[in-house]
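User: Fold this; tokens only.

Assistant: Input:
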Amino acid sequence: MWGMAHIDEWKPVIAMLVFDLISAATTALIKKALEEGLDRLVLITLRQLVATVFLAPIAYFKERSTRPKLTLEILVYLFFSAAFGAALSQYTFFYGLQYTTATFAITFTNMAPVLTFLIAVVLRVESLNMKSNAGVAKIVGTLMSFAGVMLLTLYKGVALTHQAEPSVSPGHHAAAAESGKKSWTLGTVALLANCLCFSFWLLLQSRLTKKYPALYSSTAYMFLISSLQGGGLTAAIQRRASVWVLTRPMEIVTVLYTGILGSGVGYVLMTWCVEKRGPVFTSAFIPVIQIMVAMIDFFFLHENIYLGSVLGSMLMILGLYILLWGKKRDASVASAKEEDEEDKEMQVKS
């Protein structure tokens, strides 16, 4: 029994690590597809359609006997879940990714655990007792993860590897820096908006999973609504029908991979982890994506790894473990209190 309980305890951790690996590969594919001219809104719409087609039969057969009825309240939750978690979240991330770099975009998303924790505390979704060791651990772990993000963003340091870098003329570099300054700023603002959207989605999902516990059906509905939202916005902005035609192999592969794995499998894993461990636990694993992206950059894109990236990643991982320890400590205390109350009730009945 102890062995099975121990395995069940690690399932959310394994699920989030798989999600991180999928997200790292998804980011690289999306960056390449956007550079080749794929429209952001078209990518969102087609990706969600693929995810809907992938999840719909699974949801139908797996949850047809246990699926609750759709009410107006649930539809409202699904609408905003689709808007924050899929449409707005993905659009702001794609915008920021197109005008910055893949490494910077992934690094910036590491602010999501900090924002999620702060919003959860303000909304009283997450408990915080500064007098307890768990409360102190949550604060220290969150601040440490945030410090790691800042270190990754602001400090580059010396190269620890020796990959060949392309040479750029000083004149071309100055012109590119001047022309891209505004776009880089807009991209950074878009990534901040992405973190906020993702944080609100995590908190919204924690309520939705309680009201509508059909995991696959909920995610399929969310993607269907999101594809309608994206398709309507695309039709209003893009008048050319040619933007919907995928001609390059990279575009087709990106839509299929991000739809099936990035959205279909990835969001199910996240939603399941939100249901099992809560929004703060789920968002705390986002910094791990940074390490995986760095590995992809080095082994496949042949980019150098710098001292700042290593130090920042180590600081984030340490903060992650401290934060998770605080969450686990809180869960243990809450479980012990529930057992004590049950014992008291049994004694009263006896």
